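PT: before anyone asks, these are the final sequences, not the draft ones from last week. 547 residues across everything. Please model them as a single complex and drop the result in this thread when it's through.
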Amino acid sequence: MDWTFLIFTLVKIAVVFAVVMTMVAYAVLVERKVSAFIQDRVGPNRAAPFFARYIPFLGPRLVRWGIFQPVADALKAILKEDYTPAHVRKVYFWIAPAIAMVPALLTLAVIPFGSQIGSQKMVIADLDVGILYTFGIVSLGVYGIVLAGYAANSKYPFLGGIRSSAQMISYEISMGLSVIPVFLLVGSLNLSDVIGNQSGSLLNWHVVKQPLAFFIFLIAAFAETNRLPFDLPEAETELVGGYHTEYSSMKFALFFLGEYAAMISVSAMMVTLFLGGWTLPFLGLDQPAATIGMGLVHILIFLMKLCFLLLIIIWVRWMLPRFRYDQLMDLGWRRFIPVALANIILTAAVLAFVRS
Amino acid sequence: MIVSRKPLSLAERFYLPAVANGFKVTWRHFRRTVFEGKTAAGETAGGFHPEVPWKVEPGYRGAPYLVRDQEGHTKCVSCQLCEFICPPKAIRITPPGPDGQAADRKNAEKMPRDFEINMLRCIFCGLCQEVCPEEAIFLQKDYSLSGGSREEMIYNKERLLALGGTHSGTQKWKHKLEEAKAQEAFPVKTP
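LR: through. Structure below.
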């Protein structure tokens, strides 16, 4: 066993986990702020710890921007009464939040979030089957929601669970099919190779080469993460919260965190597959970093692209109404799967023509 | 009437015009809030709630309180109609009993020994005000009640009377007296 490998991997896991959890907390804040601005409100602007008054100039502004709100939210979630209704199936009721949370975090293991710092590659697990691993794990995410719907043993969560299983299975297929052209172009399933393939020029980014694939992947990502316009499992207005109706306190918070962690991991996937990962096609930023400073710059570039995609996902939630169930299924099975298949065949044909 | 549903055009079936319009609308509001500092509360009420108190319009149904008449006497005669009609059973009246304290005003036989409204149960429906034959209970303007315990939110008679104040509106017994006098002459003049 190589001890340095183990130590560096553990450090990377700890750092990625901490960063992702912070991003989740502040993604919730951004969600609330953006929704408020779109709806002519101001959003959270009151949470103020005792020391905020003593910070000159910046203190009141931080309070007004709601910077301390995620802390208050987290404390509230932890301190609330964790209520288990009498009618639930206890074992599944307890397991479901964890199962909803874990896959979102596991997906991040294969994402290259930077080039390298020193001799360490900035990816937790540089798997050669990267994308297959991702799809294997992402499809586990549905079990958390289905189990939650089943465990709650009441009508609304059950409906939410059923919708979720149908929706996620159908969009899983178009999602998987949409990325195949990308790997036809790259010739490898390793995500680091995917990024290497996109370096050089903006025209090498897969979003330019494969706009259709990106579009389908984006829509399927909305469905996979249960975000509006495809949040049918949750559907506050019809199913009073859907699968997490019966949950409270930290168990509910786990579903919530899981949703945002899934958003982050799916955005990270999109950045890696389509938006060039940690590269930028100028100033020599598309080559693996030689110094620690450049390594950090690469991570920063990755995070900025990630935040941009997160902002799009958040904005769309307040922009579009929810799809009807039959429209959702129609879109998945009768539009996206044929289009994705056609895209594969077209790409394969063009590649065969060019390379022969 | 049957509304005919027009078939969607090709562009509409791609949902793209809806997305474009959605972005246009949301961006307009986002811009107005972030860059021009306009909010719904700022435009209509002039500010946000705790700092700028909300103006309670007449006719608002707030918390029900007991009122005193113009001479400062208890109007309630402990008839318990409000207690019976109260949908969430928030009102509890303790009648004086045969040996209890007499009413502190004329034209009344008794008044309640205690009158409790559980503000945690009250739904501010106004049925008590509607049913009261003595016009002794009114929904007033308080809408933001809070307390540190459940016991604290059960308002007793003294508290309700103190909060309710004096009723300056219709003087029911004066009108009754006028009606009775009017009926002594024939033909009866109806108001």
